[in-house]
Every structure is written in C-alpha cells, then in structure tokens.
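Before relying on records like the one below, remember that each one covers exactly one chain. Contacts with other chains, cofactors or solvent are not represented anywhere in the record.
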Amino acid sequence: MTSTGLRRVTVIGCGAAGTSIGLALTRAGVDVTLEDQDRDALDRACRAGAGRELTRAAPAADLVVIATGPDTVVDVLYTAQVRGLGRAYTDVAGTKGLICAEAEMRGCDLMGFVPGHPLAGEWWGAGPGGPRADLFDGRPWILCPYPTGRPEALEAAGALVTLCGGRRREMTPEEHDGAVTALAHVPRLVCSVLAARLTGLDGLADEALGLAGAGLRDAVRLAGGGRGGWGDVFAHDPEAVADGVDRIAGQLSEVARALRNLGGDGAAVLTGILARADTGRAALNTAAPDGGPGAPAAGEPATGQAAVGQDAGRNGASPDGATQGLPAQPPSRRTHHVPLRSGRPAGPVPRIQRFAG
C-alpha cells in the first residue's frame, strides 16, 4: 500500500500515455491492471512491466485512468462506470471542455469523475525506448474537478499525480482549453504549415533541404502528428484554434506589408515585431526555464515513435506541448462546436463508492 492510500489502479488504453502511467504506478508499488481493445498494445504494455491484464475477477480499483483519445473518453468512462470498474475515474486527454459537457449529457457519474491532463510533451516522442516511468516527473498535471465532485475522487486523482511524479494544478475546463489552445494547439498548426512548405520549397530542388540548419529543424519539431490523434484534438474546439490561426495569419500579413514598405514605415513595424518576439521568447524562458514539458530529456531525440501504442489517437492520450507554469487564459469566445452526442447505453450508472483511503 502506498503512502497516498492508492492501492489498485486500472488503466484503460495502453498507448504511450497509459503505459507510462502504468510504469510510474508500478514503480511506486501500486497494483496496476490494464485493458485495451488492441491485444498487441496490451501485451506490449504487460511485457514492459506496466501492469497485468484486467480480469472479470479483479476487485474494483481505487481509481480508473482512461488513457484513450479524446473522442472516446466519454464512451469509455460511461462503460467503465456501468461495469463498476472503480470507485473514482479520471482521464488524460488533451481537451477538457467538450469532454466535461458530453460526460454530463451522457449521464456519467460526475461525482466520481475528475477530468485531468498531464502535460508531458510528445506521447510518441518518449524516446527510442518507448514509454517510461519518469515521463511525468516534474511535469504539470492539470485537474479540472466538477464543483459537485466527491472529495474522495479528487483525492484519488491527486494521488495519481503524486505517484507519477507530476506537479498538480487545478483549473476550470475553460481555463485549461484556452491555455493549451494558445500554447500548444495553434503553435503546432503553424509549425505544420511551415513544414508543409518544405515539400515544394518554392520550386527549389529537394537537394536544397540539405542546406537547412538546426534552426529550421527546431522550428518544425512540432509539425505534423497525423498519426497522433491531433485531428481529434483540433475537432474538440475548432473555432478557438481557427481564431488563433487567424490572429497569427494577420500578423504575418502585417510583416509582409512591412517588408514591401521598408522605405516608409515598414522598417519600424518590422523592428517592433522582432522586438516583441525577443520579449515573448524571454518571457517563455522565464516561465519554463527547463524547456517545458515538451522538451526532450538529455540524450533523447526531439521526435520519434514510441514502441508501445504507436497511435495515440487510438490508445494513447492526446499529445501536448504546452509549457510549464500555465497561465490562466481567458476561455474561448465560442465553445463546444462539435455536436454533443445524446443518449446512453443500456443499464444503470452506479454512483461512486466511498474512496478506500
């Protein structure tokens, strides 16, 4: 039994996120059971030492961690509650607003559900060895508890953060989504557009790419992610992401106009933008002096596919490159654009049992 009182945890989803959580918990002495529809992913996670396969005879867990893509979190949560898999539940998806709203509409037990999101960088970029137990060490882990949630459920989710080595922070779903949209989702799309240009490179031969330096590689490190579930992430609040892209597009247009008018006031405009860039970079380095949770650890590549759960959109939590010390960003002006799914599977939804501390 751990010092936190968290003894048994079930992890649903054996992608890089779920497997890393299992490894961290087993490292801390927690009895971990695993479940995944992908038999190969489940077997790899078990062989890696992240836990053992969940069986029908297993007792209810103190906490169930849903480590699936954002589009499946609510369905998995509802089904797990109907099955009575645990006393408390949390998730690790990279968006929160739509998940929280949909969980309420589906009739999930909100008293026992604490939405969460560990900010540990690229799930699939955990290094050549794949998921690891120390992935969350020192990283921010956001919890977005419902106002009506049980203290025991929040205690269990907080214990998970502690045992995985994360730094707990509570935010509202709107604060969370506003922050990660500004600090992770929009920058990823901008990097992706820049990287996409390299396929044509304005008519230059492909051999010209060999002239690129480390600066360009740094600029496009976050690009892409089509296999990592990012489409699901963007779809959870597309207009908020679009608003951010529009603002950056407007700033780029301003730069283009300034360059075409260097003989007039363009030079001053360009100088001002570059000065603000220096200020912004300095502010980021002050807030996240270690490079933030998206930075690779020493000796690790910046990118690379994890050995376990290679499709984060299927079995792993949504990736995120947001920085440490997240500011409380204002909520998006428009929220919940994807239609909420009504209806609920057959069967009663059990209320949360008292957490066994």
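Residues 123-129, 293-346, 352-357 have pLDDT under 50 and may be disordered.
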